[in-house]
Structure formats: C-alpha cells, structure tokens
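## retry 2 of 3
previous attempt timed out at serialization; input unchanged, resubmitting
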Amino acid sequence: MYKQPLDHMPGELKTSPTHRGVRSAQLGLLVNVLLAMVKFITGVLGNSYALIADAIESTADIFSSVIVWGGLRIAARSPDESYPFGYGKAESLAGAVVSLMLIAAAVGITIESIREIRVPHHAPAPFTLAILVLVVLVKEVLFRRVFAVASDVGSTAVKADAWHHRSDAITSACAFVGISLALVGGPGWEMADDWAALAAAAIIAYNGVSLLRPAVSDLMDRSPEQLLFDAISAAAEGVEGVRATEKLKIRKAGMSYYVDIHVQADPALSLHDAHILSGQVKGAIRAALPTAAGVLIHMEPFERGQEGRS
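## retry succeeded, writing output
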C-alpha cells in the first residue's frame, strides 16, 4: 500500500498555511513601509531618480503585501452555501493582482525614467550608495525568507509577494550601478542614474509577467504537474481491493486541492463493501496529499482492458 506522503510537493504543511502566509505578508508590510520612506527621502535629498523609482516600487510592495494578506484571510474561510468549494481562489486572485501591480509599477517607472533622461539634472549624491547597499541586503534576506514560506505552503500569492521583494533588491542594485557610473563618469554621465531605473523597470516587468501566468493558470483550473497525478494514482491503486483507476482530475483552489477519481473494483462487491473501499481510497489519497480539501471517489466495476487513468 502506498504510504509515503508527498513531502516534496508544494502545499504540504506542518502548521497552518494561512497563518504562515499572513505572517510573511505582515513582515513584508512592515519592512516595505520603512524602506519606502527611507528611499524616497534619500532620493529627493540625494537627487537620484533611480532611488525615487525604487521607493515607488517599494510602495507597490506595501500594497501587494496588504493584498496578499487579505487574499489569504479570505481563502481561509470555510465553504458555505454560496461557495461550496470554499474561498481558495481568493489566494490566486491576490497573486494575479500583485503581478499586475508589478507590471504597472514597471510602466510607471519607465515613463518617468524616459522623462528624466530628456531633462538635464545634477548627478546623484554619493551618500545614496550606502542606502542602496542596505536596501539590497535587507530585501534579499526578506525574499529568501518569504519565498521559502511560499514554497512550503504552495501559495501563488505569497510567491508573488516574495518576488516583489526580489524585484526591489534588483531595482536597488541597478540604482547602485547607475549612481556609481554617474559619480565616476562626472559631467555628462548624470543620465546613468535614469538609465539604471529604466533597466530596473524592464526586470520588474519581466517578473510581473512571469508571476501572472501561474496565477491565471490556478484561476483557470489548469491541471497541476504530472508528479502529483502519479502519486495520487499510486496511493489509490495501493489500496487492497482496487483493480485500477481512471479519469483522475485535480484542481487547485488556493493552497488546497480537489481530487476527482474513478476507481475500479471487483464487480461482485456489494454496495456496502464498495462504499467502505471508497472510504479507504479517500483516506489513502488524503494521507498522500494532506492539503486535499475534497476527494470525490466514483466506484466502477472492473473490466479487463480498461486499466489505467484516462
């Protein structure tokens, strides 16, 4: 009998996935508020639009953390008469919104960077470099922490929030390079700061599009990876009395999964015994996939030549 749980599959948790996701969003919210203020003030005083653009990106991070927080809280609600399959899609929707915010921030930074390139201005102040080094270090640490949580809980929204932090680190690194070039190059190199902001915008836009795809896939009920199908089939077929399985369908709702599978057994089984067998199969699947919110078993008589999942 198949007993090994899917330790390597996203979504298995030892603690509440919603709690961990919310805690990561709260941490990101606090850090982003502080960094956005520091970067904006430093950018204005230090005459660096790349740093101001970085502050704008951090401000978008603030709203993204709030959206992720709200999405996770809604997704954690229990199913009711209006939403019998639960509110899990709110998590995917939050991930899509955060991705769109990344793309919008990139467009805004691009427009302002082009405008600044066309307008002569002074070179950034040297002290802005120290702030950028601090920001890169803080944001990279935050990215790694939040991304680890996202991988553990299988959350599209939390993963998008994590990449928001990585994007912030990237924009800060680009700003560092641009400001350094402007300072080292001297007169005529002032625009290097703005070109750095433009490069950062391109990276942010790429990350936004990359994160939008899995969020939309979850909203459209796209099938998960084949590894999950194979593991669930193995769990079901490992139950004594199961001859074969077919028509396995899996869809993700937030951080949970819904499984629909046809199980073939001995045609001579009574309805009572078939019911007991279906319960055993459901238990095996839940053991293999702890985040299965719903498992629907269709019992069918076994017929030779009908083996395998279709």
